[in-house]
Amino acid sequence: MDVTNYVILSSILFSIGAVGVLVRRNAIVMFMSIELMLNAANLAFVAFARANGNFDGQVVAFFVMVVAAAEVVIGLAIIMAIFRTRKTASIDEASLLRA
Amino acid sequence: MFNLIALESIHSVVSSEVATGVFAKMWLLIALPLMGAIVLLLGGNRTNSFGPLLAVGLPIASFSFAVYLWIELLALSTQSRSQNLVLFEWINIGSFQVPFGLQLDPLSISFVLLITGVGSLIHIYSLGYMDHDLGKRRFFGYLNLFVAAMLLLVLADNYLLLYVGWEGVGLASYLLIGYYQHKPSAAAAAKKAFVVNRVGDVGLSLAIMLMFLAFHTVTFAGISDKAEQGSATALFLIGLFLLIGAAGKSAQVPLQSWLLDAMEGPTPVSALIHAATMVTAGVYLIVRSNSIYDLSIAAQNAVIVVGVVTLLAGAVIGIAKDDIKKALAASTMSQIGYMVLAAGLGPIGYVYAIMHLLTHGFFKAGMFLGAGSVMHAMNDEVDMRKYGALRKVMLLTFSTFFVGYLAILGIPPFAGFYSKDLIIEAAFDRSLIAGFATLLGAGVTAFYMSRLVLMTFFSNKRWEDDAHPHESPLTMTVPMVILAIGSVGSGFLLTFNDSLKKWLAPVTGYQTPEPPIAVPILIAMTLITVAAGVAIAVMLYWRQVASTAPNDVSIFTKAARKDLYGDAINEAVFMRGGQKVVSATKVFDNSVVEGFVQFISRLTLGISNLVRSSQTGYTRNYALAMLLGVALMLLLAAIVRL
Amino acid sequence: MSFAFAVCATLSVAGALGMLLSKRAVHSALFIALTMINLAVLYLQLSAPFLGMVQIIVYTGAVMMLFLFVLMIVGVDSSDSLTETLKGQRIASIVVAVGLGFLLTSSIGSAVISTENSLDATFAGGNVQAIANLMFGKYVLALEVTAALLVTAAVGAMVLAHRERINPKLSQREQQQARFVDYALTGKHPGPLPPSGVYARHNAVDTPALLPDGSIAANSVPAPLQARGSIRDITESDNQRVIDLSEGNVVIERGEDGRN
Known about the structure:
The complex is a heterotrimer.
Chain A: H1 4-23, H2 27-52, H3 56-86
Helix pairs in contact in A: 1-2, 2-3
Chain B: E1 17-18, H1 27-43, H2 51-75, E2 83-93, E3 96-104, H3 106-129, H4 136-155, H5 159-177, H6 184-215, H7 220-226, H8 232-250, H9 257-261, H10 267-276, H11 281-288, H12 290-293, H13 297-320, H14 324-344, H15 347-377, H16 395-409, H17 415-430, H18 432-457, H19 474-495, H20 499-508, H21 519-541, H22 555-561, H23 566-612, H24 619-641
Parallel strand pairs in B: 1-2
Antiparallel strand pairs in B: 2-3
Helix pairs in contact in B: 1-2, 1-4, 2-3, 2-4, 3-4, 3-10, 3-15, 3-19, 4-5, 5-6, 6-8, 8-11, 8-13, 10-15, 11-14, 13-14, 13-18, 13-22, 14-15, 14-17, 14-18, 15-16, 15-17, 15-19, 15-20, 16-17, 16-18, 16-19, 17-18, 17-19, 18-21
Chain C: H1 3-21, H2 25-45, H3 49-74, H4 89-110, H5 119-122, H6 127-135, H7 140-161, H8 172-186, H9 223-228, H10 236-247
Helix pairs in contact in C: 1-2, 2-3
């Protein structure tokens, strides 16, 4: 079984996720793209675990999932808070750092 | 003079002993006038009532103590006459160790006696002279400060402590020249004295630094021990820098310009500081540094040149001055030129320099006090062309002044005859040029001093209408009389049985001069020159003197009236040159330095503006930059791996 | 390359691209759910059954549902404009991302990965036991830290989503008083709104209630329905029918199920 294909798939998904973060303005969609990137990384972890013949990669992927869950909870709460005050979920509106 | 030849050549023997007994109290000499200065200057107006009397009493107390110390010192054997007292450890940094030490030896006690003695007399005189002055307390405070600083200068056992006193007298001199604060000319004169003195002080401080560099010590004893190890260059440079310091303080060419302006100060100040004591500090410095000069003929020659030039320049300036105090000041310059010249002659001259210094201290202080007395009588008029025929109304002043006049001329048996003739002999021993210069100087001195005396006390009355000359009060005349007695007797006393020579020789060393022309002939030549000078003056000024200075005068007179263009040269070379340097520096600063700074700031601004445009505030732009960074790192890793 | 991999890989990339390109956030969410399910299948193929299940339950089940909840709150109908507002952002993003993907695939493609390792042989006790062994052995510290993180995240979410009550809560009495004050000032009826009309034929909220004179009672139909214009009309025949019924002229027709 060749894990190279899995890793290449993982790279493709990661890149698509990256593009999603960069081009979509909706904060929720950006978040989804980040989740996609995390999933791509997970896929690579699992594939490498398979290649190495141990379970460490799977454990790390599991931890990634847990952390991602926590991140989603906080991230969505922040998006809610922003939406409440600004009545929009567009990330470009929150550009107060503009010089 | 003839008996001098009997004395053997003596090398200086300096071996200081730790002061014990009464010598351990020598700090009192300084502390007493210093206390006066502190009380008067910090005490404020509440000391107005008793301040001046206290200020007069303290130098007298100091003088009495000095006399006592002198007698004690006389009782000691020649070798143990250098008493050293370390009060405390002053500077202790690694190998740089300077004690706060005082040294009482025949040389310094001579100065102490002169300073406290003449100083006390002038303090007493000031009581009368400054009687109507509202700022009397301040004046006496400064005067006491001066005495304290001057005593520190001559009692210090190392150059650094001497420097403290040196600056102290400079400060006191500055404060006293500018004492009449309401007069802009006084303020300017004070500033001028201060600035010119700083030039000399830089020389002295450089000399001290060089000494430390070359010998790792700044004490007189240490320098004296190690001087022979020094290289010729080091010794010459130290000697030269010391000479610059001495020239600044003693108003020698090229740092002479401040002394004539310094006459803006009250007359007692001119007498004490700018005639008798402070201006002679340079001579003291050179004599005290004999261990340096003895080993460097080049440095000695430099001293001689400065002395010769100054004694002639001062004499020439003296001819043209109508201001009685300025004429006397020019004379002081000239006489100190004699002393410096003598000090530059080495062991044959040191003793004569000091001797002339002491006699000059008497007769010049006396004449200044006389001039002050005349001014006091003539509503503070200083122009001699407004005087004339004063001998009748001010007989006592005239008598004392005339004694001083005879002394400075060198008429036997007055004091100047002994000291000046000896210097002329010593100068001839060294070089004919220096010898004839001193001879010429003596003749010119005779001329301008006769002119001064004739214009003031003889010839026709040229008084202003409201002038009512009168004899001065007792507080003023008594010091004048005492100084006149000194002007008569000091020369004889100092040479009698070679007293001063025997006294100073252990410190300064001594060598008998052997002039190429026989001594009696020299004396005769001197007296003839002096007589010629007097005769010319009498011819010109005996009968009639114009009440205003004539304008159709020769170019030499014009030059002399302008102090031989000393100020003009200073202004052209240093002031204008300095201004040019400053404006060039300013241009450099504005264009290059400022330009560089501006360039840096503009560059920063430009880069900042460039970078600022990347700060869009859009999260997605930042994320893009982040991703670009990741990609670039990955690319870098890939390239390195390849 | 197995057939299953080919299908799952294609579907997951398609899901990812769908997420990227959908206008509506809801569609994006559904597309990414597709991707995640396919990833779960791939995990199963890679001998990671535990992770595959967790992927479905936690990601597709919990996380994506959370996304949908938030979308409902934020506004499910809103659709994004896909035109780019930041100059050059889109081109640059695509170039950089493609470059990154190229770098990743090329570097991985050039790497030598040993493939002949059977996880089943490594741990005979089964996948879950193997993972548990590692998690509670080698990675126990990380597990504890993650636990702390989860607790913190829960508290953080509550803090962020919490809103302080600005006005005091009104009691029933105060509410009634406010209503009558309102009535006194504006004439607004203090009682409940009229219920919708209930008829034998039309038993729904879109039917207006009729007053005794046969006219329509205002506010008997909810405002959104009025705004949408979906009010059932009351025709003259309806009125006639009501009259007939009240006079007993009409017999109620029974439906087949015995109801109208």
